Structure formats: C-alpha cells, structure tokens
Amino acid sequence: MKKKTLPALLSVLMVTTVFSCAVRQSTYEKKADEAQELAILRAALEGERDGLKVNLEESAKQKIKLEASLAYLAGQLDMVSQERDEARKRASELDKEIVRLMEKKDEQVQPVQKTSPVFEDLLMTMKAEVERGLVGISEYEGKISVTLVDSILFDSVKNEVKKGGEEVLGKVVSVLKYVESKSIQIEGHTDNMKISGSLSKRYSSNWELSSARAINVARFLQRQGIPGERLSAVAFGEWKPVADNSTPEGRARNRRIEITLVDKD
C-alpha cells in the first residue's frame, strides 16, 4: 500500500512543479510584455513632452513678438491721436483766421463801381486808338481821363496840333461837349530830356513846352464848340512821369496830353 502511494505522490508533485513553472513563465512573459509596452508608452510620452516643450518655447517667442508689436502699435496709436488733436487744433485756428479775414475783407471791399455812359461812349468812339495803344481811357470815383501820347497829336519838335491829332481830338469832343455838368482840364506832360534844337529857341524848359501844347489842345476844343469857361490848361512838364525816363519806351509814355473831366466846383 505504501509502495503504491509514494510513486503517486511523486507524480502529483512533478505535475504540480511543472504546472507551477509553466505559470511562473507565463506570468514573466506577460510582465515582460507589459514592461515593453510601458517603455514604448513612456518613449511616446517623452516625445510628446519634448514636442510640447518646443511648442511652448515657440509660443513664448511669439508672445514676446506680439507684445512688442502691441507696444509699437500702442505707440503709433498715441502718435496718431496726438497728430489728430493737433490737426483739429490747427483746423480750428484756420477756421478762426478765415472768419477774421472774411470780416476784414467785408470791411475793406467797396462796391464795384459801374462805368458811366460817358466812359462807355469814349471807349466805343476811340476803340481803334485804344487798341493801338495810342489812347488810354480810365474812370475812377467818377473821374474820367483820356490820355493821348504826344506822337498822335504833335509832330516832332512842334507844339501845334497836327491834322491827324485834330481827327483824334474830334472824337473826344464828340462825346465831351455834351457833358455840360463837368469841367475839362487839359494837362501837358513831357519826359525829362532837355529842350534842344529849334524848340529851345522858343521854350527854355519842359514847363513852357508842356504849357504850350496843353493850351493849343484847349484852343482846339474851344473851336470845336466846347465853351471856354469849361476849359483849363495845366503844365506839369517832366514832374509827373508815369514811366521810367531812362528808357525810350518810358519817355514815350511820359510825353502825353491828359484830358480829364472834373467837377465844376
């Protein structure tokens, strides 16, 4: 009985040992697999951690750049705001200046003077001479003046009105003889050149020459029907030039007869 029991026990012990060894080996392999999986997971997590670290560093750099950009934009905004305020201030000052100038202009501007019918008639009658620059006609504050260059009225070194001059003066008379409310003043003007030649025997200075020419024009107007009481002759000689006597053109402008309508008073 005992002999049969021992082998059986040994058999059971061996089976148990083998099974136990098999279980231990299976558990070890399972643990090994788990350790390997954990190692892989750990490596993956460490890689992800490193990636997140890099991303964090990039984000930090971007944050610094954005903060710098925001600071720059804030500075620009402040500058723009200051410029806007200054522009508004300048605009306000300009508006005030415009108002001041407009008020000043309103104070200084005079109503536009309308030309008189006499002025218009003279312009129409003497249009050809005006266009040729031989006659000038002006009106200011009711005073009308007709300026004639000496060459259209007188021959060189003479003071008598020539035939062509009489024709021009006839046009003046055709208008002025009907303006009975005004007196007519004839002014004689010369350049500053000294009297020479044959004229020097008759006139010692430009005073006398301008006087003689003004008187001869007045006499012609009288002969054309303008009453003598409306006429006066004035000699200015060289003393009221309208241009520079240092040039031939200037001297030619200064040698002139001016016929002016003035108030009888």
Summed up, what is this model?
The chain is an alpha+beta fold and 265 residues long. The chain is built from seven helices and five strands. Helix 2 packs antiparallel against helix 5.
Q: Your description of this structure?
A:
The protein has 265 residues and is of the alpha+beta class. It has two domains: 22-109; 117-263, OmpA-like domain (60s Ribosomal Protein L30, Chain: A). The protein has helices spanning 2-108, 117-125, 127-131, 150-153, 163-176, 206-223, 248-254; strands at 135-140, 143-149, 182-189, 231-237, 256-263. The protein has a five-stranded mixed β-sheet with strand order 1-2-5-3-4. Strand 3, helix 6 (206-223) and strand 4 form a beta-alpha-beta unit. Helix 2 runs antiparallel to helix 5. It is rod-shaped, with a radius of gyration of 60 Å. The N and C termini lie far apart (183 Å). The relative contact order is 0.08. The model has no long low-confidence stretch (mean pLDDT 86).
